[in-house]
Write a structure and sequence with these properties.
By secondary structure, the protein is an alpha+beta fold. It folds into two domains: about 20-40 and about 150-180, Molybdopterin biosynthesis moea protein, domain 2; about 50-145, Beta Complex (Molybdopterin biosynthesis moeA protein, domain 3). About 10% of the residues lie in helices and about 20% in strands. It has three helices and twelve strands; from the N terminus they run αβββββαββββββαβ. The protein has helices at about 5-15, 60, 165-170; strands spanning about 20-25, 30-35, 35-40, 50, 55, 80-85, 100-105, 115-120, 130, 140-145, 155, 175-180. The protein has a five-stranded mixed sheet. A three-stranded antiparallel sheet has the order 1-12-2, with no helix packed on it. The longest helix is centred in the first third of the chain and has 11 residues, at about 5-15. The radius of gyration is 31 Å and the shape is elongated. Residues about 70-75 have low confidence and may be disordered.
C-alpha cells in the first residue's frame, strides 16, 4: 500500500499544468502572472503636483522666512500674485512668469518654468495673492516624468501573484489584458460499493 505522501507525489507528477491564457486585468486578480510586462512609456507621463498648493519657481520664494527689510528698514513680506489655477486632468498649458504663482491640485500638470509646489500651509491660502511664510527647494512636492516607471522597466514580473497593486500598475502603463496561469481544476472521484447517492438512506454497511 502506498503512503499518503507517495500517492500525492504520483498525482502531482501526473498533473498537467494548464496553459497560460490572456485575460482582462479586471479578471486577473489572484492569478499568477505568466509574462514579463515591460513598460513602453514613463509613469508619470508628465511633471505633476504631488500635493495641493501653489506652483512656483523656487528661486522666487527662497527669501521667505529670512530677515527681509523694506525701504524703511521694516521687515518686508514676500507676496506673490496668483495668476491661474490648474486642476488634475487639465490639458491647458500654462507658462509661469517670474514672481508669479499658480494654484494647483494634486496630480495637476506643472506649469512651464515652475520647479516646485508650495504647500498651502506655508502660505496664507490666498486666492488672488499669497503671503509666503516658508520657502521650498527645487523639486519639492513634484512628481517628475518617470519617477515611478521608466520605459523598459518591468512593471510586473512573471511568477508574481497579481493583486490590487499589480492591477493598478498594469492599468497605469496601458495594459488592458495580461497573460496568466489559470487556476487549476481538481476533480475528486469517490468509489466503493458501500457508497450510495446523497439522496438515498444508507442501508446496512453503506455510507
Amino acid at each position: 500500500m502506498r503512503s499518503v505522501e507517495e500517492q500525492q507525489a504520483l498525482v502531482t507528477a501526473a498533473a498537467v499544468a494548464p496553459r497560460p491564457v490572456r485575460v482582462a486585468i479586471s479578471e486577473a486578480q489572484g492569478l499568477l502572472c505568466a509574462e514579463e510586462v515591460v513598460t513602453e512609456r514613463p509613469l508619470p507621463g508628465f511633471d505633476q503636483a504631488a500635493i495641493d498648493g501653489y506652483a512656483v519657481r523656487s528661486v522666487d520664494v527662497a527669501p521667505a522666512g529670512t530677515d527681509i527689510r523694506g525701504e524703511e528698514g521694516e521687515p518686508a513680506e514676500l507676496m506673490l500674485p496668483v495668476v491661474g489655477e490648474v486642476s488634475a486632468g487639465s490639458r491647458q498649458p500654462i507658462r509661469l512668469q517670474p514672481r508669479q504663482t499658480v494654484r494647483v491640485d494634486t496630480g495637476a500638470p506643472m506649469p512651464t518654468l515652475a520647479d516646485a509646489v508650495l504647500p498651502v500651509d506655508r502660505t496664507d491660502g490666498g486666492r488672488a495673492r499669497i503671503k509666503v511664510y516658508k520657502p521650498v527647494r527645487s523639486g519639492d512636492f513634484v512628481r517628475r516624468v518617470g519617477d515611478d516607471v521608466q520605459p523598459g522597466d518591468v512593471a510586473v514580473r512573471s511568477g508574481t501573484i497579481i493583486g490590487a497593486a499589480q492591477v493598478g500598475l498594469l492599468a497605469a502603463v496601458g495594459r488592458d489584458k495580461v497573460l496568466v496561469h489559470p487556476r487549476p481544476r481538481l476533480s475528486v472521484i469517490s468509489i466503493g460499493s458501500e457508497l450510495v447517492d446523497i439522496d438515498r438512506t444508507p442501508g446496512a454497511g453503506q455510507v
